[in-house]
């Protein structure tokens, strides 16, 4: 099994849509979107971003040979920050460190495009595997929630200026 990681190309936006819908159907508790509602959307915002190769928004893919088996989005925000969204690896490829490689590829690409950026993400409190993966990579818990109530998600961040490769 040969695993590679790279930013999705414009012609791969449909492949992204297929795996994104699969992620919503297979793991509804892990995402903020709902599968049935997503089916009604003609084209996802990220599909446009993939097709137009938007600098501030990209979708990284994990590939087994030529098959797209994992996705992870990065979106640049204000104040030299960015967020990771839509992290998903197909079920039969989980537990093989592909998620680890995918997150490393996303953070690496984000650091290359935006040196010293701070990256944040949220993980549902019930998803211990994902939480442990993010911690292993170097993400730390956000302690100050600014008075917001806990939504059942844990917020984590990574200061890439301090990241040792």
Model description:
32% of the residues lie in helices and 29% in strands. It contains five helices and seven strands. It has a seven-stranded mixed beta sheet, with helices on both faces. Strand 3 and strand 4 form a beta hairpin. It is globular, with a radius of gyration of 15 Å.
DSSP strand tally:
7
- The quaternary structure here is single chain
Give the end-to-end Cα distance, rounded to a whole number of Å: 25 Å
Major beta sheet summary? 7 strands, mixed
Task: Please state the average pLDDT score.
Answer: 88
Unreliable spans are none
Q: Which word captures the global form? A: globular
Counting DSSP H or I runs of 4 or more residues, the number of helices is 5
Concise synopsis of the structure shown:
With about 160 residues, the chain is of the alpha+beta class.
Topology:
Elements: E1 3-7, H1 13-26, H2 35-39, H3 45-52, E2 57-64, E3 67-76, E4 81-89, H4 98-113, E5 118-124, H5 128-137, E6 140-141, E7 153-159
Parallel strand pairs: 4-5
Antiparallel strand pairs: 1-2, 2-3, 3-4, 5-7, 6-7
Helix pairs in contact: 1-3
List keywords for this structure.
seven-stranded mixed beta sheet; 165 residues; alpha+beta; globular; 5 helices
């Amino acid at each position: 099994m040969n695993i590679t990681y790279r930013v999705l190309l414009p012609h791969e936006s449909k492949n992204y849509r297929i795996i994104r819908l699969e992620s919503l159907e297979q793991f509804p508790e892990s995402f903020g979107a709902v599968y049935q509602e997503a089916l009604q959307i003609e084209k996802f915002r990220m599909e446009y971003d993939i097709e137009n190769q938007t600098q501030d928004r990209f979708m990284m893919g994990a590939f087994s040979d030529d098959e797209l088996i994992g996705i992870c989005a990065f979106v640049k925000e204000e104040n030299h920050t960015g967020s990771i969204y839509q992290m998903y690896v197909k079920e039969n490829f989980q537990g093989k460190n592909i998620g680890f490689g995918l997150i490393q590829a996303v953070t690496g690409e984000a650091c290359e495009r935006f040196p010293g950026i701070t990256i944040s993400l949220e993980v549902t409190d019930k998803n211990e595997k994902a939480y442990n993966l993010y911690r292993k990579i170097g993400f730390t818990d956000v302690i100050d929630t600014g008075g917001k109530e806990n939504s059942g998600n844990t917020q984590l961040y990574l200061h890439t200026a301090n990241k040792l490769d």
